[in-house]
Amino acid sequence: MRHLLPLALSAGLLAGCAGPQSPDGTWINQPIIDAARTGIPLREALLAHGPNLEWRLDSQRGQAAYSNGFEAPEGRLSTTADGLLQVDYQGDYQEQLQLQGDELVQQASAYGPEQHFSRPQQQAEAGAPLGSSFEWALYQAYLGGEWKILEGVGEGGLVLFHPDGRLEGLPGAERYALCLAGDCASMAGENDSLWLQLGNQGAPWLFERDGDQLRIVEALNQSTADEVPSYRPGRQAWLLERD
């Protein structure tokens, strides 16, 4: 998980001023976001429609890169004889992409299933980490709106999860980040996890999302001090409900 980096976004900005038929710019995995929006566990949405979260293409420079939440490999972008976009990586590894209407489709390969990407409504400004546009859209869809604390410290209060990672109303936390892949996901096992932070201090928590209810519980480490952490659900800290 990229821990709590600020996401600077601007509406309608597309890298390279790409035209309607141009592949250039940023593309996000909208099916993951649409599935998560329904309130299912985040891991289920990622497994069903991932693993890649975002592509960034620049045909003039022949560059392409994608983010899957824990790495962002860069490759050489070219066009094949049959009109497909091909991305070549070191080690004779390739991915093929195709524009289909207003979607960018990553073709199924030995490295992953077919995946679909759309233009983001809000895109990260130049210099933002690859994946920032996807995170903004996901955070807004998955946790946007007003949440009321039904149980836990601050009961009765309202909580706001801002799409840039800011957090208001949850006692003891001012920023958050959802775990999308990498070490934080493997340490959480079959559970969804997020990072809560106040100032320079933060810790992982586990959560369960069921429709418009969000249950946040302690992440208890089952491993010994010399082992990689492995978390299981502990006591409930908060139960939130979205209005």
Brief overview, please?
With 243 residues, the protein is mostly beta strands. The chain is built from 4 helices and 18 strands. Helices cover 14% and strands 42% of the residues.
How many beta-strand segments?
Answer: 18
Strand content: 35-45%
Radius of gyration: 19 Å
Topology pattern, helix = H, strand = E = EEHHEEEEEEEEHEEEEHEEEE
CATH class of the largest domain, anyone?
Mainly Beta
Helix content: 10-25%
SSE-based structural type? mainly beta
Largest sheet: 8 strands, antiparallel
Strands of the widest sheet, in order across it, are 2-3-4-5-6-7-8-9
What's the architecture of the largest domain, going by CATH? Beta Barrel
Query: What is the number of domains?
Result: 2
Report the principal-axis shape. elongated
What name is given to the CATH topology of the largest domain? Lipocalin
The residue ranges in which pLDDT falls below 50 over 5 or more consecutive positions are 5-19
* Overall pLDDT score: 91
Explain the overall architecture.
A hairpin with a 6-residue loop joins strand 4 and strand 5 (74-79). Helix 1 packs parallel to helix 3 (132-143). The longest helix is centred in the middle third of the chain and has 12 residues, at 132-143. An 8-stranded antiparallel sheet has the order 2-3-4-5-6-7-8-9, with no helix packed on it. An 8-stranded antiparallel sheet has the order 13-12-11-18-17-16-15-14. The chain has a two-stranded antiparallel ribbon with strand order 1-10. It is elongated. The chain is built from 4 helices and 18 strands. It is mostly beta strands. Helix content is 14%, strand content 42%. The chain has 2 domains: 9-141, Lipocalin; 145-242, no CATH class.
